[in-house]
Amino acid sequence: MVNAERRGKAMVELRPISNVGSSFLGIMKDRGYGKSFQVHDPHRVGRITVELQGRIKDCKALTYRQDVKARDIEQYRLKILPTRQWGYVVITTPDGLLDHEEATRRNVGGQVIGYFH
């Protein structure tokens, strides 16, 4: 997605897909980093078509799932993101996939799966 964003593409197709990936894209869309996305054939290998908005500078999924406590989320965010003004850390919690703001509001910790800014 970052490469397509840098090339000025309007849409990108992602394959293969997972429920975690589509939830991650849902958080990105809710926070204004994507216009829309459609899941095609989710029961098989499938694909996701994402309509880009032009705001993504970096988007990473961490291969190691790092545990973070609710009180340590803000420190982790400051360490991972380049600035305090924008960007989100995505955390998998018992309440589902949440960004760092929602996890702090609900006072739940979990495992960091990625970030975007």
Write the layout of secondary structure elements.
Elements: H1 2-7, E1 11-14, H2 19-30, E2 34-40, E3 47-52, E4 59-68, H3 73-80, E5 88-93, E6 96-99, H4 100-106, E7 110-116
Antiparallel strand pairs: 1-3, 2-3, 4-7, 5-6, 5-7
Number of helical stretches of at least 4 residues:
4
Strand content: 35-45%
Number of extended strands: 7
Alpha-beta classification: alpha+beta
Uncertain ranges: none
Helix content, binned percent: 25-40%
| Physical arrangement of strands within the biggest beta sheet | 4-7-5-6
| H-E order | HEHEEEHEEHE
How far is the N terminus from the C terminus?
12 Å
Reported for the largest beta sheet, the result is: 4 strands, antiparallel
Shape: globular
What does this structure look like?
It contains four helices and seven strands. It is α+β, with helices and mostly antiparallel strands and 117 residues long. The longest helix has 12 residues, at 19-30. The protein is globular and about 35 Å long. The mean pLDDT is 87. Pfam families: Ribosomal_S8. Belongs to the universal ribosomal protein uS8 family.
